[in-house]
């Protein structure tokens, strides 16, 4: 068994990691840290996990953390405090924060913070893009939730002529905003509402540009909060496309032929099909007047965070990437 | 008092017309038709209207309908059966169906149906665009819900250079689908979901093109259903825009300076601010890398249907356009 | 015109008062206080009210407040700081807090706070119970939201034999918890959830006992939060009832015969029928094995707070109680 | 491996059975029937199951059905057509319909239908009550969703003096109404609503009385639909209770000491803690003025249907009852 630890185990991403680890046939939970709940039983704080573990949250110093595998599920700028110690003391590390996803200089600009661990080598963990590199890496930066759904919806098209302008109009459940109550998570502010935010300048845009930009391609992104807890649906609009619908569909089928967690279908995908699961559903593929619409659906906390982290950890540990993740979502 | 009748009074649009008429200081409900509920008290079928009226639904023949003012709130292809009689027998008629919004030939193509009353003269009732023409018209075709929110979000920009490509990515509450249960209105299919549909070819696109197309301008439209009952939020993306944010804001402020029901603000608008009201809130106005984002929010059943119809009827009857509509929405 | 002021105008109850006052034919908004937003335009803070007023929030000292009519919409223990000044300087005062609803001694026990203005004479403003007393009062304590819906669902039965045990199992929208974000209003904690709280000892119970207790009658109350913003539906269970269903229905019809805002019907009422309106819908009236079920539906922010306060203010000012309130709710 | 079949595989209960079976370490899906979708790939009809199976729905005659284990997930009165054949040809059968839960005569009365297979011997599958009998049975009638949550919330109290009157006030997600769209599942009729129905006479009441009635004990039941897809929360009110809170808590802890899927805690349970899982959370345990409140939470489609059926099937097949069910729910 591989001993797995979670730094930051009581937030939404952390608790989702715990949910998956506790059900993983080859992982054993070694520790879950939480400053707020140190010493308290995990099942008391996260009652959905009662019976699955008797462990309590711990709060050791950074230097004491060790294990075969450690996940950091802490806010950006916090992960960089842990990572230098973890990569020393742990065989494999997956960071779920934003700290290492994009080059240091860009991170500092986009997140308006100084990086205390600049230039560290790491692999960007969009599994379907970098599987081979991930397999030989000991430190992976897990992608952001929006970039995961968005980039996967266009990756097969990037080599095609004319794919010069991509707009991602994304709709996310509110759980992406975390477990802490704020104005924007207040129920009456979400119910019967849909809220665009950072409509031209969301931080995840630079991550998207890193993955699918280049070649003078314009990449635009506007996220919206919908009255749902989980899920990200991204409507990708591409303009001046000269392919036809069948060609596009074939490109996607071929590209993702070996990717278990990517399900390509002609139908527009549904969040309910992926809820609680690591699957990415991609569909739509309609073209009219040169505009191509591709739609992707993920669970933001699974493929958009904890699930993809486990998928990467499996690969880093030479396990079948499906381990602990090979089950259907909750539908309805 | 102006005697007002509603053809098709038991659907969502019809009942919203009744709600407003029963509270209108100058309108008096003359009749509300319903084939399904003929003879039943309105308050028994629509319990929110109990106490506001003691009338019952009626079901006269088309020929018998008359009044100072009649609204048709029936499905497309049904309105054209009534309109020829109504325009004969009633002083003013507002049709809320799709039958007369676009030219006959285009209607037949887009809606796949033959028009039994082709070429009838009428004014397209986007109030803020056509107020003067509406004032002297006796027959108005009330706009679709999506085109209302979408077109108003870009009207002030149409004379500007470089506004050549507009994408409307709209999010609507499910009440737009009507009062009849279907697969797509089934609660578990809407909750925790967001559903793009007709992603390149929604029927309302031709109406949008009629209003804001032209000059080789590309107009695209993708609607989505969100887990809400009311409201349409449209995220309008314009590309290659050479204006700056202040110029855009000023264009909007100036254009809508005399339009009571259009509220222009820098903030991104919220559905809760317009819920149950006839207001259109427009905001956002961010530009980055040539892309301008403008967001509009309406209540699809009010400004998107019954409210705008009343606004038009007021104007057609030489009344203050605010009558019966001058109150705030429900927030939260 | 009657000049009306609101102390605490930016919370949910306060903003609902503003919504109604700004639409009231005989009231004119004199002031709305808000410490947090003093000096800011009301329409900037509460965008649904934009265009209805150009006033700004103010923050005068208690001593400066005066007007024909003042509403206090501040938390409990805060109202008692204002009321002694208001009753001096204002013709009519309606307090929407809990401070004066129940006798001082009981208030201190239930709310665990000392009362700084004990024993002040006031009328409990459950309109349908105390209309005559309200008409000659200058200071009214507006009822709690739960007691309003609960008590009205059993008032007609209190003189009947055998009505010795009443259980109110209530379901409320989350707006009752106020505009400030907390753990219990965090969207993911409300969505797909229903949360019983204070299951035997909610503070409103003592108010219910005051109104419908007595005669050794047992009164029980358990509130639940449902994933809705507005509305309270109360399922009232009465045991060992010897009446039959027709007798019960007749008792209710007779009792509320002159009460415009109480709509008695055999059907189980719906929240959508009262949403945004001052109506109370009461129905159900099923009896089996001695248990009677009566169900009431109100909008917690209207009949459960601001609407009933306006209704009371109308009566205190010798106006038709329907003024400013005589419109249908939003349905759907 | 045990070959498991599902009769009625495309409804909500059937698809939940498929979800669990496809993830079960000892079960192998032999067939899933569906008249509507016969011949179509399961993953095309239920896209959440894509990748988990390549099988298609089948539609054989009743006589042809055979397997080690068969579940019937068809409406009441339909199951009785299959069961006589299944019990002949299959080693173990679990019926998820209402047909065999209560005695034939009572079934005919409550469900208003003639029973074509009267008096058949079977075990009522409330696992925690009848585990031993289930272990030696080859035909089990799986309990209704409401009775499961309700009965488990009071079972430990039935031997106590004074427990003479129990009221179950239950709140259910709409998925209990099935996959077929109706008026009562129409999104605008559920959103911002809570709907009591069959307030004194729901069919599940007779099942509850069978399990927890007797000894002149009064058992009452009122169900409500809340705006959620999954979950049943039952608020159980017991009157004239002479125990204290600690005694009650201890009774529950002791009673369920060996029941893995029952989690007893002092806190009021949450639907999110059990969503998608087979756990029953029971808590509350407040007593005031003789009234005891106990609250239980289940996922209606798992412990309230498919999960408990699998739990029973495990036991009938001499497997650990946790197999295929030992994972946490989705929270948030």
From TrEMBL, chains A, B, C, D:
Any GO MF annotation of the entry: NAD binding
InterPro entries: AGPR, AGPR_AS, AGPR_dimerisation_dom, AGPR_type-1, NAD(P)-bd_dom_sf, Semialdehyde_DH_NAD-bd
UniProt main location, coarse: cytoplasm
PROSITE patterns reported in the protein's UniProt record: ARGC (PS01224)
Catalytic function, reaction form: N-acetyl-L-glutamate 5-semialdehyde + phosphate + NADP(+) = N-acetyl-L-glutamyl 5-phosphate + NADPH + H(+)
Keywords on record: Amino-acid biosynthesis, Arginine biosynthesis, Cytoplasm, NADP, Oxidoreductase
Active site (record annotation): 145
Name this protein carries in UniProt: N-acetyl-gamma-glutamyl-phosphate reductase
Organism: Methanohalarchaeum thermophilum
């Amino acid at each position: 068994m591989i001993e797995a630890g979670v730094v930051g185990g009581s937030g939404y991403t952390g608790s989702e990691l715990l949910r998956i680890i506790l059900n993983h046939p080859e992982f054993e939970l070694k520790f879950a840290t939480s400053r707020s709940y140190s010493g308290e039983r995990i099942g008391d704080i996260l009652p959905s996990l009662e019976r699955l573990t008797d462990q309590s949250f711990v709060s050791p110093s950074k230097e004491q953390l060790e294990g075969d595998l450690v996940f950091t599920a802490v806010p950006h700028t916090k992960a960089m405090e842990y990572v230098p110690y973890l990569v020393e003391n742990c065989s494999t590390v997956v960071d779920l924060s934003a700290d290492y996803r994009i080059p240091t200089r860009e991170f500092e600009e986009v997140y308006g913070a100084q990086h205390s661990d600049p230039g560290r080598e790491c692999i960007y963990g969009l599994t379907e893009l970098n599987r081979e590199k991930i397999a030989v890496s000991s430190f992976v930066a897990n992608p952001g939730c929006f970039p995961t759904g968005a980039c996967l919806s266009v990756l097969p098209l990037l080599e095609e002529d004319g794919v010069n302008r991509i707009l991602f109009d994304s709709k996310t459940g509110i759980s992406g905003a975390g477990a802490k109550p704020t104005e924007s998570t207040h129920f009456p502010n979400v119910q019967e509402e849909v809220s665009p935010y950072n409509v031209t300048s969301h931080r995840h845009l630079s991550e998207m540009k890193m993955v699918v930009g280049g070649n003078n391609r314009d990449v635009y992104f506007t996220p919206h909060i919908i009255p749902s807890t989980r899920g990200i649906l991204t409507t990708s609009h591409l303009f001046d496309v000269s392919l036809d619908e069948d060609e596009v569909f074939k490109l996607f089928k071929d590209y993702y032929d070996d990717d278990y967690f990517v399900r390509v279908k002609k139908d527009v995908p549904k969040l309910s099909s992926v809820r609680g699961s690591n699957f990415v559903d991609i569909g739509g593929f309609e073209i009219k007047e040169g505009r191509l619409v591709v739609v992707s659906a993920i669970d933001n906390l699974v493929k958009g965070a904890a699930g993809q982290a486990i998928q990467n950890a499996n690969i880093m540990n030479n396990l079948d990437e499906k381990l602990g993740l090979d089950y259907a979502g909750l539908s309805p």
